[in-house]
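Service request form, structural biology core

Requester: graduate student, group of Dr. S.
Request type: structure prediction, single chain
Budget code: on file
Notes: please return the result as structure tokens.

Sequence provided:
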Amino acid sequence: MAATLARDTMGPVRLPLVLVALLSTSAHARPIPFDAAKDVLGDAKDCTDVPCLIAARYAKDDKAKAVALALFEATGDLAGLGKDEIMEGGYRGKIHLVPQLPVGSYRTHLAWTSAAMTSIDEFFTDVFADQKAAPSYRWHDLAFRFVKSPGKKTPSAYAGVDPGGVWTIVYNVEGSLLISEAGVLETLWHELFHTNDQSHRDWSARTLQTDYAAIVAKCGTKLACLEPYAPNRTIVRGGTYYAFQPDNGETVHEYAAELALRYFNEQREMLAKGKLAKPAFKCGPAENARAWKALVDEFFGARDLVPVCAGAH
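Core staff response, request fulfilled:
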């Protein structure tokens, strides 16, 4: 069943020390500097380190404070505040975003964020457990900036890089996709891919645009025509598959992020069950196979647990 969109497992395996070091290098860029952390969390005059800033920001909610501190300790990620801004949302229109700390009735969003980042850690541990090469991918040392959108449910999240170079995901506690732990995990993976894509010199535009443009020229926004090419079933209300929704920035970026999400879900299903319940994405049209191989080779060290397609060489 297709979802209506407004977005912008197995336990850990003990790894050889060399692989642990490789994964750590890929996961981390560098810890978020103290001055940048103050921008995310707010200043506290007596603080000289990041844990102190976290404790000060969450002083009125001990449960949220414990989660935020544990998240930072485990992954280097900060859970702080977004900006008061008017966002140009493309097909969504202009959206007013206001800061909203994930405390009190919003604390669940902080717990879901922490669980998602733990799941992503475990994913890379499991998928690369017997590999000598690490993924060319980063998933640590992020700043989560929490906001809400009065009167709207979009966007659920969007990614970017702060002026200081901090990788940031803006998280809308009112977002229509962020209503379950599973929804948060998939949305954060999608958004995290965007920044990895840009760090690879706008890989999706350089690599996927030709096939993507040909698909759009052939199908436009017709659901039946696009269905074989859509990495996921998510559909914009009143529109088309999210991967092909017009007036949504550089739409090939969204196609690539949805492709990365399909990779994430298919690999997890292979780990859990040893087979896929539905045909593999790469076993569809030739465009799918080319995009899949390019993605896996660029970001994931050519690591693909899904078997070769029937009839493929």
